[in-house]
From TrEMBL:
NCBIfam families in alphabetical order: hydantase (TIGR01879), PRK09290.1-5 (NF006771)
Lineage of producing organism: Bacteria, Bacillati, Bacillota, Bacilli, Bacillales
Domain of life the protein comes from: Bacteria
Protein's name according to its UniProt entry: Zn-dependent hydrolase
SUPFAM superfamilies per the UniProt record, alphabetical: Bacterial exopeptidase dimerisation domain, Zn-dependent exopeptidases
Positions of the Peptidase M20 dimerisation domain: 213-315
Keyword Hydrolase set for record: yes
Gene3D superfamilies tied to this protein: 3.30.70.360, Zn peptidases
GO molecular function: hydrolase activity
Amino acid sequence: MTVFELNTDRIKDNILALATIIDEDKPGYTRRPFTKWHTQSREWLMNEMKNSGLDVSIDVASNLIGKREGKNPELPPIMIGSHTDSVVGGGRFDGIIGVLAGIEIARQLNEKDVQLAHTLLVVDFTGEEASEFGISTIGSRGMVGNLTQEDLNRTNGDGLVLRDALASVGGRPEDLATESLRPGDLSLYAELHIEQGPVLEQTNHELGVVTGIVGIQRHKVIVEGQANHAGTTPMNMRFDALTTASEIVLAIEKVANEEYAEQVVGTVGRLFVEPNGANVVPGSVIFEFEVRSLDLQALDQMIEKIQREIAEVEKRRTVSITMNQLSHADSIIVDEEIVQLIEESCETVGTTHRLPSGAGHDGNQLAKIAPVGMIFVPSQEGKSHCAEEWTDFELIAKGVQALGNTIIRFDQR
Ligand code: HGY
Ligand code: MN
Ligand code: MN
Ligand code: MN
């Protein structure tokens, strides 16, 4: 049973249209949150939502929400959506296809005059990607009441306070405590997303039924050595912050390559050297690292090992090293009932395969207040967070059908 058309052309046109609203001075298809390109893309999305019969609003956490009334307004709504902000140098599909899928589903429900019992909410979350504030999934954290005052006081590299950034795009941070959603306020949150990994392509499946989403811990490490003259400072008199940091970067990789109960990954993706001069022994280094796993204990084990490695390096090199947690997101295991609902909804459309998500998503936050489910479509060569990110449009259109079927089945339970 599938109510929804395979509308490859419309989803393709929308993906390619959104891919033109980007920061041309950055690589790939960059659209960072709280920038004029994200604001422009929001305006484009609002228009598409209105053309799909959705009532448009900005919620307390600055998320864009399109609403389609259901026959029984007393039922907690079904929410679908994702994010349209990108990493620097990101691709055209990560997050974007989930928001456009929601709009396409609303449009097709109208074209077929299908009235759902549940109200349908289509969401574009603000700031899903890791941000300069040191926190990700900003809008969905705010939606579920998981942005603390400390979070709201975070600043980015330019001194902008997160509280003010949210207000600048329509959020009302002062009302977060009273207006965020609580358990029971939603019946279901479901998201279509690219896999961002190689499994579906390698196993030759069209649709992924997500069984869980990894937890993430992000930390900042500050290494204070001593800037000095690169020519006149003998090797045995140096306190080189960069070679020290390099030992820790490699130690993080070593720790992530050890054995744990569940698969783990560890990455250092962001590093700053001061004073960053070719003829100056680096005086200080700041870098951020993250570790991920479905198993929260494995995350804690990795952090303990990394802390021991840092203590050893600090003692041996007599420099100062501090490590502070930036953020964390709990892992989630998708309810078997939701997995089966989604699997059945996918099977009428294409070949399916169950798998966990190595990427984090807004679902990590929505799981605090509602059942969460996700559908993946394959990523070509598993690539993502880069300009080469690619998924065939027909596979995305199948993902839209599968997500639409999921909503219909859930609505009629
Ligand atoms: O980083 C992630 O896992 C996601 O793409 N935001
Ligand atoms: Mn991403
Ligand atoms: Mn994403
Ligand atoms: Mn199979």
